[in-house]
Amino acid sequence: MPHDRVTIGVIEDDQVMGGTLIHRLELEGYAARWWRTGGEAIDGLRASRPDLIVCDIRLPDMSGEDVFLRVLPSLAGTPFLFVTAFGQIEQAVRLTKAGAVDYIAKPYAITDLLERIPRLIRSRPSAIGALGASEPMRRIETLLRRVADVDSSLLFVGESGVGKEVAARFVHGISGRGPSPFIAVNCAAIPNELMESELFGHEKGAFTGAHARHHGYVERARDGVLFLDEVGELPSPVQAKLLRLLQERSFTRLGGESAIRVPARVVCATNADLEAAVADSRFRRDLYYRINVIRVAVPPLRERSDDVLPLAAGFLREFCTSFGREVHGFTSAAEQALLTHHWPGNVRELRNRVERAVALADAPWISPAALFPSEAVEPRPLEELLPSLAEIRERAERHHIRAALARVGGRVEEAAKLLGVARSTLFDKMRKLAVDADPERRRHGH
Protein backbone atom coordinates (compact mmCIF):
# COMPACT_ATOMS: atom_id res chain seq x y z
CA MET A 1 0.00 0.00 0.00
CA PRO A 2 1.71 3.28 -1.08
CA HIS A 3 2.09 6.19 1.32
CA ASP A 4 2.54 9.19 -0.97
CA ARG A 5 4.95 11.86 0.28
CA VAL A 6 5.22 10.27 3.75
CA THR A 7 8.85 10.21 4.90
CA ILE A 8 10.09 8.38 7.99
CA GLY A 9 13.40 9.48 9.54
CA VAL A 10 15.28 6.72 11.41
CA ILE A 11 18.05 7.54 13.93
CA GLU A 12 19.64 4.20 14.79
CA ASP A 13 23.29 3.18 15.10
CA ASP A 14 22.73 -0.58 15.01
CA GLN A 15 23.48 -1.65 11.42
CA VAL A 16 21.28 -4.74 11.47
CA MET A 17 18.30 -3.18 13.19
CA GLY A 18 18.51 0.06 11.20
CA GLY A 19 18.96 -1.69 7.88
CA THR A 20 16.08 -4.08 8.55
CA LEU A 21 13.75 -1.24 9.54
CA ILE A 22 14.65 0.89 6.52
CA HIS A 23 14.12 -2.08 4.17
CA ARG A 24 10.71 -2.86 5.68
CA LEU A 25 9.56 0.77 5.60
CA GLU A 26 10.45 1.02 1.92
CA LEU A 27 8.61 -2.23 1.21
CA GLU A 28 5.54 -0.69 2.86
CA GLY A 29 5.76 2.27 0.47
CA TYR A 30 7.26 4.88 2.80
CA ALA A 31 10.24 7.06 1.91
CA ALA A 32 12.94 6.50 4.54
CA ARG A 33 16.07 8.34 5.66
CA TRP A 34 18.61 6.76 7.97
CA TRP A 35 21.06 8.54 10.26
CA ARG A 36 23.49 6.45 12.32
CA THR A 37 24.60 9.11 14.84
CA GLY A 38 23.03 12.04 16.61
CA GLY A 39 25.29 14.45 14.77
CA GLU A 40 24.29 13.04 11.39
CA ALA A 41 20.63 13.31 12.38
CA ILE A 42 20.89 16.95 13.48
CA ASP A 43 22.66 17.90 10.24
CA GLY A 44 20.16 15.91 8.17
CA LEU A 45 17.16 17.40 9.93
CA ARG A 46 18.36 20.91 9.06
CA ALA A 47 17.81 20.09 5.39
CA SER A 48 14.67 17.96 5.61
CA ARG A 49 11.56 17.52 7.70
CA PRO A 50 10.30 13.92 7.91
CA ASP A 51 6.68 13.23 8.75
CA LEU A 52 7.79 10.99 11.63
CA ILE A 53 11.13 10.40 13.39
CA VAL A 54 12.00 7.03 14.96
CA CYS A 55 14.91 7.64 17.32
CA ASP A 56 16.95 5.28 19.51
CA ILE A 57 17.63 6.83 22.91
CA ARG A 58 21.16 5.34 23.08
CA LEU A 59 23.44 6.66 20.30
CA PRO A 60 27.25 6.54 19.98
CA ASP A 61 27.91 10.31 20.15
CA MET A 62 24.99 11.63 22.21
CA SER A 63 21.64 10.50 23.55
CA GLY A 64 18.43 10.55 21.56
CA GLU A 65 17.24 12.95 24.22
CA ASP A 66 19.96 15.43 23.23
CA VAL A 67 18.95 15.13 19.56
CA PHE A 68 15.31 15.72 20.49
CA LEU A 69 16.06 18.86 22.50
CA ARG A 70 18.35 20.31 19.83
CA VAL A 71 15.87 19.93 16.98
CA LEU A 72 12.71 20.61 18.99
CA PRO A 73 12.63 24.39 18.36
CA SER A 74 12.85 23.94 14.58
CA LEU A 75 10.85 20.71 14.27
CA ALA A 76 8.09 21.39 16.79
CA GLY A 77 5.07 19.38 15.71
CA THR A 78 7.02 16.56 14.05
CA PRO A 79 6.15 13.30 15.86
CA PHE A 80 9.07 11.65 17.68
CA LEU A 81 8.88 7.94 18.53
CA PHE A 82 11.64 6.81 20.88
CA VAL A 83 13.11 3.31 20.86
CA THR A 84 14.21 2.45 24.37
CA ALA A 85 15.70 -0.38 26.40
CA PHE A 86 13.84 -1.51 29.50
CA GLY A 87 16.06 0.52 31.81
CA GLN A 88 15.35 3.73 29.87
CA ILE A 89 11.56 3.58 29.95
CA GLU A 90 11.34 6.23 32.69
CA GLN A 91 13.37 8.56 30.49
CA ALA A 92 11.13 7.82 27.49
CA VAL A 93 8.01 8.54 29.52
CA ARG A 94 9.48 11.87 30.57
CA LEU A 95 10.25 12.70 26.94
CA THR A 96 6.66 12.01 25.93
CA LYS A 97 5.63 14.61 28.49
CA ALA A 98 8.16 17.00 26.91
CA GLY A 99 6.63 16.64 23.46
CA ALA A 100 7.51 13.22 22.02
CA VAL A 101 4.43 11.31 20.89
CA ASP A 102 5.27 7.75 21.92
CA TYR A 103 7.96 5.18 22.74
CA ILE A 104 8.49 1.51 22.02
CA ALA A 105 10.64 -0.82 24.13
CA LYS A 106 13.31 -3.18 22.79
CA PRO A 107 13.07 -5.83 21.60
CA TYR A 108 10.07 -4.91 19.45
CA ALA A 109 8.35 -6.43 16.46
CA ILE A 110 8.57 -4.29 13.33
CA THR A 111 4.93 -5.09 12.63
CA ASP A 112 4.04 -3.40 15.94
CA LEU A 113 5.92 -0.27 14.87
CA LEU A 114 4.27 -0.30 11.44
CA GLU A 115 0.83 -0.47 13.03
CA ARG A 116 1.56 2.67 15.05
CA ILE A 117 2.81 4.79 12.17
CA PRO A 118 -0.56 5.90 10.66
CA ARG A 119 -1.78 7.07 14.08
CA LEU A 120 1.48 8.88 14.78
CA ILE A 121 1.44 10.57 11.38
CA ARG A 122 -2.08 11.85 12.09
CA SER A 123 -0.76 13.47 15.27
CA ARG A 124 1.46 15.73 13.15
CA PRO A 125 -0.05 19.19 13.42
CA SER A 126 0.69 20.63 10.04
CA ALA A 127 3.06 20.88 7.17
CA ILE A 128 4.99 23.67 8.85
CA GLY A 129 4.82 22.33 12.33
CA ALA A 130 2.93 23.41 15.44
CA LEU A 131 0.74 26.50 15.26
CA GLY A 132 3.20 28.71 17.07
CA ALA A 133 5.41 29.35 20.08
CA SER A 134 3.49 32.35 21.40
CA GLU A 135 1.05 32.07 24.26
CA PRO A 136 -2.00 33.02 22.11
CA MET A 137 -1.21 30.33 19.54
CA ARG A 138 -0.52 27.72 22.23
CA ARG A 139 -3.97 28.44 23.67
CA ILE A 140 -5.52 28.06 20.22
CA GLU A 141 -3.67 24.78 19.67
CA THR A 142 -4.94 23.45 23.01
CA LEU A 143 -8.51 24.36 22.07
CA LEU A 144 -8.26 22.80 18.62
CA ARG A 145 -6.89 19.55 20.02
CA ARG A 146 -9.95 19.34 22.28
CA VAL A 147 -12.42 19.79 19.42
CA ALA A 148 -10.55 17.99 16.62
CA ASP A 149 -12.74 14.89 16.66
CA VAL A 150 -16.15 16.50 17.13
CA ASP A 151 -18.38 17.49 14.21
CA SER A 152 -19.33 20.96 15.43
CA SER A 153 -18.76 23.79 12.96
CA LEU A 154 -15.60 25.87 13.38
CA LEU A 155 -15.33 29.55 12.49
CA PHE A 156 -11.85 31.07 12.24
CA VAL A 157 -11.77 34.87 12.32
CA GLY A 158 -8.84 37.21 11.89
CA GLU A 159 -7.03 39.47 9.47
CA SER A 160 -5.98 38.26 6.05
CA GLY A 161 -2.79 36.21 6.13
CA VAL A 162 -2.75 35.30 9.83
CA GLY A 163 -2.92 31.56 9.16
CA LYS A 164 -6.59 30.65 9.38
CA GLU A 165 -6.26 27.94 6.73
CA VAL A 166 -3.12 26.61 8.45
CA ALA A 167 -5.14 26.26 11.66
CA ALA A 168 -7.95 24.52 9.77
CA ARG A 169 -5.48 22.07 8.22
CA PHE A 170 -4.03 21.50 11.69
CA VAL A 171 -7.45 20.36 12.95
CA HIS A 172 -7.88 18.13 9.92
CA GLY A 173 -4.42 16.61 10.35
CA ILE A 174 -4.83 15.63 14.01
CA SER A 175 -8.41 14.41 13.70
CA GLY A 176 -9.71 11.01 12.70
CA ARG A 177 -10.55 12.59 9.33
CA GLY A 178 -6.82 13.03 8.59
CA PRO A 179 -6.66 10.53 5.68
CA SER A 180 -9.84 12.03 4.13
CA PRO A 181 -9.92 15.02 1.76
CA PHE A 182 -9.33 18.60 2.86
CA ILE A 183 -11.13 20.77 0.30
CA ALA A 184 -10.30 24.47 0.55
CA VAL A 185 -12.55 26.97 -1.24
CA ASN A 186 -11.88 30.70 -1.52
CA CYS A 187 -15.42 32.04 -1.73
CA ALA A 188 -14.18 35.50 -2.73
CA ALA A 189 -12.51 34.11 -5.85
CA ILE A 190 -15.63 32.51 -7.37
CA PRO A 191 -18.08 34.71 -9.35
CA ASN A 192 -21.54 34.84 -7.76
CA GLU A 193 -23.22 33.33 -10.82
CA LEU A 194 -20.97 30.26 -10.63
CA MET A 195 -20.93 29.85 -6.84
CA GLU A 196 -23.82 27.40 -6.46
CA SER A 197 -22.59 25.16 -9.27
CA GLU A 198 -18.99 25.19 -8.01
CA LEU A 199 -19.97 24.35 -4.44
CA PHE A 200 -22.86 21.95 -4.93
CA GLY A 201 -22.35 20.72 -8.50
CA HIS A 202 -24.94 20.40 -11.24
CA GLU A 203 -26.70 17.80 -13.37
CA LYS A 204 -26.37 17.54 -17.11
CA GLY A 205 -28.67 20.06 -18.75
CA ALA A 206 -29.19 22.09 -15.56
CA PHE A 207 -28.37 25.26 -17.51
CA THR A 208 -27.01 26.27 -20.89
CA GLY A 209 -23.54 24.83 -21.23
CA ALA A 210 -24.03 22.09 -18.61
CA HIS A 211 -23.06 19.25 -20.96
CA ALA A 212 -22.22 16.74 -18.21
CA ARG A 213 -22.75 16.15 -14.52
CA HIS A 214 -20.39 18.18 -12.33
CA HIS A 215 -19.37 17.20 -8.79
CA GLY A 216 -18.95 20.29 -6.64
CA TYR A 217 -16.58 20.98 -3.77
CA VAL A 218 -19.10 19.79 -1.17
CA GLU A 219 -19.43 16.39 -2.77
CA ARG A 220 -15.68 16.06 -3.24
CA ALA A 221 -15.11 16.67 0.47
CA ARG A 222 -16.90 13.37 1.22
CA ASP A 223 -16.14 12.47 4.87
CA GLY A 224 -13.29 14.96 5.17
CA VAL A 225 -13.26 18.72 5.75
CA LEU A 226 -14.82 21.44 3.62
CA PHE A 227 -12.99 24.70 4.35
CA LEU A 228 -14.86 27.81 3.21
CA ASP A 229 -12.54 30.81 3.32
CA GLU A 230 -14.11 34.29 3.15
CA VAL A 231 -17.50 32.74 3.84
CA GLY A 232 -19.01 36.22 4.16
CA GLU A 233 -18.76 36.57 0.37
CA LEU A 234 -21.39 33.87 -0.29
CA PRO A 235 -24.47 35.22 -2.14
CA SER A 236 -27.86 34.85 -0.42
CA PRO A 237 -29.17 31.82 -2.42
CA VAL A 238 -26.00 29.88 -1.66
CA GLN A 239 -26.18 30.87 2.01
CA ALA A 240 -29.59 29.19 2.18
CA LYS A 241 -28.26 26.02 0.59
CA LEU A 242 -25.25 25.96 2.94
CA LEU A 243 -27.62 26.29 5.90
CA ARG A 244 -29.49 23.21 4.72
CA LEU A 245 -26.22 21.30 4.35
CA LEU A 246 -25.29 22.15 7.94
CA GLN A 247 -28.72 21.28 9.31
CA GLU A 248 -29.45 18.12 7.34
CA ARG A 249 -25.98 16.95 6.22
CA SER A 250 -27.36 16.69 2.70
CA PHE A 251 -27.78 18.77 -0.47
CA THR A 252 -28.98 18.52 -4.05
CA ARG A 253 -27.00 19.32 -7.15
CA LEU A 254 -28.18 22.25 -9.27
CA GLY A 255 -30.91 20.79 -11.49
CA GLY A 256 -31.07 17.62 -9.39
CA GLU A 257 -33.90 16.10 -7.39
CA SER A 258 -32.28 13.50 -5.13
CA ALA A 259 -30.69 14.56 -1.86
CA ILE A 260 -27.05 13.55 -1.48
CA ARG A 261 -25.78 12.89 2.02
CA VAL A 262 -22.34 14.31 2.89
CA PRO A 263 -20.80 13.75 6.34
CA ALA A 264 -18.03 16.31 5.78
CA ARG A 265 -17.17 18.72 8.58
CA VAL A 266 -17.68 22.34 7.52
CA VAL A 267 -15.02 24.79 8.70
CA CYS A 268 -15.36 28.46 7.80
CA ALA A 269 -13.08 31.48 7.95
CA THR A 270 -13.47 35.21 7.42
CA ASN A 271 -11.61 38.48 7.84
CA ALA A 272 -14.88 40.40 7.63
CA ASP A 273 -17.19 41.56 10.42
CA LEU A 274 -19.95 38.99 10.10
CA GLU A 275 -21.95 40.53 12.95
CA ALA A 276 -22.14 43.78 10.97
CA ALA A 277 -23.08 41.83 7.84
CA VAL A 278 -25.91 40.17 9.78
CA ALA A 279 -27.09 43.55 11.05
CA ASP A 280 -27.10 44.89 7.47
CA SER A 281 -28.97 41.78 6.20
CA ARG A 282 -26.03 40.82 3.98
CA PHE A 283 -25.51 37.55 5.85
CA ARG A 284 -28.20 35.24 7.19
CA ARG A 285 -28.52 35.34 10.96
CA ASP A 286 -29.47 31.65 11.19
CA LEU A 287 -26.46 30.66 9.07
CA TYR A 288 -24.18 32.81 11.21
CA TYR A 289 -25.24 30.91 14.32
CA ARG A 290 -24.77 27.57 12.55
CA ILE A 291 -21.19 28.27 11.45
CA ASN A 292 -20.23 30.06 14.68
CA VAL A 293 -20.52 27.10 17.05
CA ILE A 294 -16.81 27.13 17.95
CA ARG A 295 -15.24 30.51 17.23
CA VAL A 296 -11.45 30.82 17.04
CA ALA A 297 -9.92 34.29 16.78
CA VAL A 298 -6.44 34.07 15.24
CA PRO A 299 -4.44 37.15 16.32
CA PRO A 300 -2.35 39.17 13.87
CA LEU A 301 1.39 38.51 13.75
CA ARG A 302 2.20 41.88 15.35
CA GLU A 303 0.46 40.65 18.52
CA ARG A 304 2.47 37.42 18.75
CA SER A 305 6.07 38.45 18.26
CA ASP A 306 7.30 35.16 19.78
CA ASP A 307 6.15 33.45 16.57
CA VAL A 308 8.08 35.66 14.16
CA LEU A 309 11.56 34.13 14.38
CA PRO A 310 10.43 30.46 14.54
CA LEU A 311 8.18 31.02 11.50
CA ALA A 312 10.95 32.81 9.64
CA ALA A 313 13.37 29.96 10.42
CA GLY A 314 10.86 27.44 9.13
CA PHE A 315 10.32 29.34 5.90
CA LEU A 316 14.09 29.70 5.52
CA ARG A 317 14.56 25.92 5.71
CA GLU A 318 11.69 25.34 3.31
CA PHE A 319 13.01 27.67 0.62
CA CYS A 320 16.66 26.64 1.07
CA THR A 321 15.54 23.08 0.31
CA SER A 322 13.29 24.15 -2.59
CA PHE A 323 15.86 26.43 -4.21
CA GLY A 324 18.99 24.46 -3.33
CA ARG A 325 20.47 27.43 -1.46
CA GLU A 326 23.13 27.32 1.28
CA VAL A 327 21.85 29.97 3.68
CA HIS A 328 22.75 29.57 7.36
CA GLY A 329 20.24 31.97 8.88
CA PHE A 330 19.49 35.62 9.67
CA THR A 331 21.96 38.16 10.97
CA SER A 332 21.24 39.68 14.39
CA ALA A 333 20.23 42.91 12.67
CA ALA A 334 17.86 40.99 10.40
CA GLU A 335 16.29 39.24 13.39
CA GLN A 336 15.77 42.63 15.04
CA ALA A 337 14.20 43.96 11.84
CA LEU A 338 11.86 40.98 11.72
CA LEU A 339 10.81 41.55 15.32
CA THR A 340 10.16 45.28 14.95
CA HIS A 341 8.35 45.20 11.59
CA HIS A 342 4.60 45.82 11.91
CA TRP A 343 3.61 42.95 9.54
CA PRO A 344 0.48 44.39 7.91
CA GLY A 345 0.39 41.30 5.67
CA ASN A 346 0.87 38.96 8.64
CA VAL A 347 2.33 35.47 8.13
CA ARG A 348 1.75 35.60 4.38
CA GLU A 349 3.95 38.71 4.16
CA LEU A 350 6.64 37.08 6.31
CA ARG A 351 6.68 34.02 4.08
CA ASN A 352 6.93 36.12 0.91
CA ARG A 353 9.78 38.24 2.29
CA VAL A 354 11.79 35.17 3.32
CA GLU A 355 11.14 33.50 -0.04
CA ARG A 356 12.44 36.54 -1.90
CA ALA A 357 15.49 36.83 0.36
CA VAL A 358 16.43 33.17 -0.16
CA ALA A 359 15.76 33.25 -3.91
CA LEU A 360 18.10 36.24 -4.35
CA ALA A 361 20.61 35.27 -1.64
CA ASP A 362 24.25 36.02 -2.47
CA ALA A 363 25.59 35.61 1.07
CA PRO A 364 25.38 32.89 3.73
CA TRP A 365 23.39 35.10 6.11
CA ILE A 366 20.17 37.04 5.43
CA SER A 367 20.54 40.78 6.08
CA PRO A 368 17.82 43.39 6.80
CA ALA A 369 18.26 44.79 3.29
CA ALA A 370 17.49 41.36 1.80
CA LEU A 371 14.22 41.23 3.72
CA PHE A 372 13.21 44.86 3.30
CA PRO A 373 14.97 45.98 0.10
CA SER A 374 12.89 48.99 -0.86
CA GLU A 375 12.07 50.55 2.47
CA ALA A 376 13.73 51.81 5.59
CA VAL A 377 13.39 49.43 8.50
CA GLU A 378 11.68 51.60 11.09
CA PRO A 379 10.93 50.24 14.53
CA ARG A 380 7.42 50.34 15.88
CA PRO A 381 6.50 53.04 18.41
CA LEU A 382 7.86 52.35 21.90
CA GLU A 383 4.41 51.92 23.40
CA GLU A 384 3.69 49.09 20.96
CA LEU A 385 6.93 47.34 21.87
CA LEU A 386 6.52 47.67 25.65
CA PRO A 387 6.40 44.05 26.86
CA SER A 388 4.11 42.64 29.51
CA LEU A 389 5.47 41.38 32.82
CA ALA A 390 4.91 37.81 31.60
CA GLU A 391 6.99 38.52 28.48
CA ILE A 392 9.78 40.04 30.59
CA ARG A 393 9.80 36.98 32.83
CA GLU A 394 9.92 34.62 29.84
CA ARG A 395 12.78 36.58 28.27
CA ALA A 396 14.74 36.49 31.52
CA GLU A 397 14.19 32.74 31.91
CA ARG A 398 15.18 32.14 28.31
CA HIS A 399 18.36 34.19 28.78
CA HIS A 400 19.42 32.40 31.97
CA ILE A 401 18.72 28.93 30.55
CA ARG A 402 20.75 29.69 27.42
CA ALA A 403 23.59 31.11 29.54
CA ALA A 404 23.65 27.99 31.74
CA LEU A 405 23.62 25.66 28.73
CA ALA A 406 26.43 27.62 27.09
CA ARG A 407 28.52 27.39 30.26
CA VAL A 408 28.24 23.57 30.39
CA GLY A 409 28.53 22.96 26.64
CA GLY A 410 24.86 22.17 26.10
CA ARG A 411 24.71 19.35 28.66
CA VAL A 412 21.15 19.53 29.96
CA GLU A 413 21.66 17.62 33.21
CA GLU A 414 24.56 19.84 34.28
CA ALA A 415 22.65 22.98 33.30
CA ALA A 416 19.75 21.85 35.52
CA LYS A 417 22.15 21.49 38.47
CA LEU A 418 23.63 24.90 37.78
CA LEU A 419 20.16 26.48 37.73
CA GLY A 420 19.04 24.58 40.82
CA VAL A 421 16.06 22.84 39.18
CA ALA A 422 15.13 19.27 38.37
CA ARG A 423 16.11 18.08 34.89
CA SER A 424 12.44 17.42 34.03
CA THR A 425 11.62 21.01 35.03
CA LEU A 426 14.36 22.31 32.76
CA PHE A 427 13.05 20.13 29.88
CA ASP A 428 9.59 21.64 30.30
CA LYS A 429 11.01 25.17 30.37
CA MET A 430 13.16 24.57 27.29
CA ARG A 431 10.20 23.26 25.36
CA LYS A 432 7.92 26.11 26.43
CA LEU A 433 10.54 28.77 25.68
CA ALA A 434 11.87 27.09 22.48
CA VAL A 435 15.43 26.95 23.82
CA ASP A 436 17.96 24.89 21.85
CA ALA A 437 20.42 22.90 23.96
CA ASP A 438 23.33 23.93 21.73
CA PRO A 439 22.42 27.01 19.67
CA GLU A 440 25.97 27.95 18.68
CA ARG A 441 26.54 24.56 17.10
CA ARG A 442 23.31 24.88 15.14
CA ARG A 443 23.94 28.52 14.14
CA HIS A 444 27.40 27.89 12.70
CA GLY A 445 26.44 24.64 10.97
CA HIS A 446 28.84 22.33 12.90
What would your notes on this structure say?
- This protein has 446 residues and is an alpha/beta fold.
- It has helices at residues 15-27, 38-47, 64-75, 89-98, 110-122, 135-147, 164-174, 192-200, 217-221, 236-248, 274-279, 285-291, 308-323, 332-340, 346-359, 368-371, 382-385, 389-407, 412-419, 423-433, 439-443; strands at 7-11, 31-35, 52-56, 80-84, 102-105, 154-157, 182-186, 225-229, 250-251, 260-261, 265-270, 294-297, 329-330, 365-366.
- It has 21 helices and 14 strands.
- The strands form four sheets. The protein has a five-stranded parallel sheet with strand order 2-1-3-4-5, with helices on both faces. Strands 7-8-11-6-12 form a five-stranded parallel sheet. It has a two-stranded antiparallel ribbon with strand order 9-10.
- Helix 4 (89-98) packs parallel to helix 20 (423-433) and helix 6 (135-147) crosses helix 7 (164-174).
What features would you highlight for this structure?
14 strands; globular; Rossmann fold; alpha/beta; Helicase, Ruva Protein, domain 3; five-stranded parallel β-sheet; 446 residues
Summarize this entry quickly:
The chain contains 21 helices and 14 strands.
Binned strand content: 5-15%
**Number of DSSP E strands:** 14
Report strand order across the widest sheet.
Answer: 2-1-3-4-5
Q: Which CATH architecture of the largest domain would you pick? A: 3-Layer(aba) Sandwich
Give the number of helices. Answer: 21
Q: Which CATH first-tier class of the largest domain would you pick?
A: Alpha Beta
Tell me the CATH superfamily of the largest domain.
P-loop containing nucleotide triphosphate hydrolases
Main sheet properties: 5 strands, parallel
- Shape call: globular
Overall number of structural domains: 4
Radius of gyration: 24 Å
> Any idea of the CATH topology of the largest domain?
Rossmann fold
Span between termini: 39 Å
Overall mean pLDDT stands at: 83
Strand-pairing-aware structural class: alpha/beta
Runs with pLDDT <50, length 5+?
A: 125-129, 376-380, 439-446
The helix content, as a percent range, equals 40-55%
